[in-house]
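#lab-general

N.A. 3:47 PM
ok so I finally got the sequence cleaned up, no stray characters, all 289 residues accounted for. can someone with queue access submit it? mine expired

B.Y. 3:52 PM
send it over

N.A. 3:53 PM
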Amino acid sequence: MTIPGSSEGVTVTEDAVLDLQDVRIHNDLDDVELVHGVSLRLGRGRVVGIVGESGSGKSLTCRAVLGILPELIEVSGGSITLLGRDTAGLSPAEWTALRGASIGAVFQDPASYLNPSIPVGKQLSEVLRVRGGLRRKEARARAVALFEAVRLRDPERVYDRYVHELSGGMLQRVLIAIAISLEPEILIADEATTALDATVQAEILDLLAELTERLGLALVLVSHDLAVVAQLCDEVLVMRDGHVVEQGPTERILRAPREEYTRLLVAEHEQYGLERYLRTPAARELENV
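B.Y. 4:20 PM
back already:
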């Protein structure tokens, strides 16, 4: 697969493009701390998974990284460093410039993030024109090429389709195309495959893995599904009630969890054949040494 505007043979380094140190998130309305000290370092071409039940703080942590926390909820402690910049001092204009160009995101319900009254291709073209500086014809050609890159069949035809005319899997691919259109270095996928059937979910995960390898993207994958994490992630954070209860290499966490909560999560997923997914990218690299 060739991504428009990208180069072959991206060099993957261990330099952290995203660095969270003891991040705490506070609800000012209720005077309650919601996230209690999350730390992680993510390099180019690496994938970190964040797992846990609903309300564990997974999505809040990602929204803090994106600078889109809800009103009256704020980062109250620690630091978030994005491509070498401390985000605490960023202005709204600087955040707007970073989102899309440096960090992209794909969420669970793509239809909620797309305008139903405008063809999906024109929505992508608008991003490329306004944010990428392309002319109308250039933007259309680039949009079609991006749709092809995310494995949408007949991308020219998809360009003119509306949200209601596309399946959930197709809409998720459209959202991924928009998310990578400005060539960000970090991509956050927050429950991006949850609403999809098993076959389409596998295709989207394969696409995310290929994009990570091809573009050297740093990927944060949020999921409640350990099988998804086992397939794609180098490292995993297990969260519960706003705390990181366990953190480390995916293979170790899922094969030999040290905390009771993690053991319960693993046991719950074992009935669905978790074992067959426990060959993470890092484990496969070791096998080939």
